[in-house]
Description:
Layout: H1 12-18, H2 26-32, E1 68-71, E2 77-81, H3 96-106, H4 118-131, H5 141-154, H6 158-165, H7 169-186, H8 188-198, H9 208-216, H10 225-234, H11 247-263, H12 269-276, H13 299-311, H14 319-328, E3 332-335, H15 339-352, E4 360-366, E5 373-378, E6 406-407, H16 413-422, E7 430-431, E8 436-438, E9 442-443, E10 450-451, E11 457-459, E12 469-470, H17 471-477, H18 480-490, H19 493-501, E13 524-525, H20 527-538, E14 542-544, E15 549-553, E16 567-569, H21 573-589, E17 603-609, E18 614-621, E19 624-631, E20 641-645, E21 648-652, H22 659-671, E22 750-751
Keywords: Carboxypeptidase, Cell shape, Cell wall biogenesis/degradation, Glycosyltransferase, Hydrolase, Multifunctional enzyme, Peptidoglycan synthesis, Protease, Transferase
GO cellular component, one term: outer membrane-bounded periplasmic space
Family: In the C-terminal section; belongs to the transpeptidase family.
Amino acid sequence: MAMKRSGGGPTVTRQAAKFLGVSVLSGVVLAGLALPGIGAFGLAAKGSVEGFDEIPANLKTPPLSQRTTILDAQGGEIAKVYSRDRTVVPLNEISPYMQKAIVAIEDSRYYEHGAVDLKGVLRALNKNAQSGGVSEGASTLTQQYVKNVFIEEAGDDPDKVAVATQQTLGRKVKELKYAIQVEKELGKDRILNNYLNITFFGQQAYGVEAASQRYFSKHAKDLTLGESALLAGIVQSPSRYDPVMAPKEATKRRNTVLQRMAELKNVTPAEAAAEQAKPLSLKVSRPKSGCITAVDGAGFFCDYVRETFLQDPVFGKTKEARAKRWNEGGMTIRTTLDPQTQKSVQKSITDHVYQSDPVATAVSIVEPGTGKVLGMGQSRPYGFGENQTQINLSADHAMGGSNYGFQVGSTFKPILAAAALEEGTSPNKTYSSPYSMPYPSEVETCGKPWKNGGGETVNNENRSERGPYGMKEATAKSVNTYFIQMIEDIGICPVTKMADKLGVKPADGSKLQQVPSIALGTSGMSPLTMASAYAAFANRGTYCTPVIVESATGPDGKALRVPKTKCSRAMSEQTADTVNTLLQGVIEDGTGKEAGLSGRDSAGKTGTTDERKAAWFVGYTPNMAGAVWVGGPGSKKVEMENITIGGVYHDKVYGADTPGPIWRDAMAGALDGKDAPTFGTVKVSDSERDAGGDKGDKRTPNRPAKPGNKPGANKPGSGKPGKPATNKPRSATDGDQPDPAQPNGILPGIIGGPDER
Length: 757
């Protein structure tokens, strides 16, 4: 007896009868489509045949998710990524055997009936009644295609998938209405083609082309009779008939398909028997998806491409829209990765730091003037095993990097020098630069002045290191006290503003704190950030944001919009040329000698943090800029003393003796065969005395102070007393942890001086 809807509405049977306008026999169909009696399953009217007329007339078919191919700048493949492994192919690129096999086993009367096969329905009703359950379905191949569309639209959402596959009369009615529509609009061949491209064949393979590649390592157009029968048999139950995991069951199923093809005269009995006697003869290609398969150590570069796509609004207005577009795939993305540079980066990394070492290294190389990321690698590869990681050590946290980046040490000093030069400080400026000194009692900031309320001090690396020094020698020797005296003179605000112009921000996305210790690189940055900042020096003062995608096309071959670099002037050409001169001295006569390149202009700066928990070399030529970090990759910082790295023992690690050679070898290989342009430089003396300027320890820059301000102040009225700035420790959830802050905004000291080799 038919169940009555709550509220006294029409019965399910009467609702079904309304559908007779479409087909006189549809009432019978609706009562039994792949289901036993309605009452036997206790199907409530709600969710069954309600509102047939309310079902939209047009089936909206979502784009089929496919593989996306990521290429390097020369068109070489880096990796294929996908949420579903699928390659859509036209019907003429699918073996005729495959087409006949799927029709034979799934819907042998496919070309004879419409959207509904009445004979199939009656046969299923009879068998289901005899068994008391669902022993046989009655869905046509067209209906199965519609069901697959619903599943595809549900994506990876388990709730939506459950709704798309639930055994309710309502879903069957909806499926039927759409089946009638697509039969009318598409025709049999196009439906068959769509079905073969959408259906799941197990082993992560969606569509016949991916399945053919997975099980036989060949294209779908080349499938033989036996191979086609095997694939057609899988569709009914991909797990039960999995030829890799259950070869006996798969063989039985294949033979059933072959027998059915012989009965339908698709093949002769002799042909079917010959194939039935053969082994499966699989030639399995394992799934190769994602950045873990990237070549030449470019796994994290590949991951950065994905992060760029998911986060940049150019690919979609909302996070959800971008994620949906990425998962649909089918794109070809050409990146900025230079294969020569990437190979050189990876070789240098593996030559100098072993995957099993207690520390790791990360290297990023960018092109000045374009922002193109040419290479990116690290010693801990992309993966889930021992000494592998999913954290991109070259990137900011928002782009898949560590929580807080890594303290950059003395590699921040050139940014301070650039700020001072822009403020009018002479490149020949001399400071007394004692071995040890108190932090300034008060330093101007962008707001209230910072005050040293705790009597904290700063010192150089060793006691023999004392001034007076000029800017060139202080930079070459990385003299801490020189740069603290400099920031006392110009104030903190010009430094943070210069850092902002150079894209230098903490890896956790916070702002640089207004404390004098930033002069010594106490903030945590990423290698890509530092490489991009130094590229502005090479580019004579113009900073360009890093970019990683050159071009992209969608599944239809049409070009997609991609992010573009944004270039802006961060400093004058004169200032940039002066910094070039200073940093050439680091490589020629200072702490970076071991990083020097032969036969071309190069400049750079070493950096080593307190307790040697991080060591850096950031350097550049006129046509490439690169940053190298070495340190503990996890939450536990490694003090790099009495340590073996890459098979080489170090009593103490410095920026020059490990990061420096990594940078040198990576850059040398990357630049091999390329032009060797020269820097714009200026004449810089070791002191103001040598340059004919004022003698002595001049503690103010060579510019007039603004009215109402102390020398170096940048904001009227900013000399009012206020609370000292402080750096509060932050907790980490993964990756690394920041070093604890010291009182009054003084962070742990940064090593500098002659021993910062």
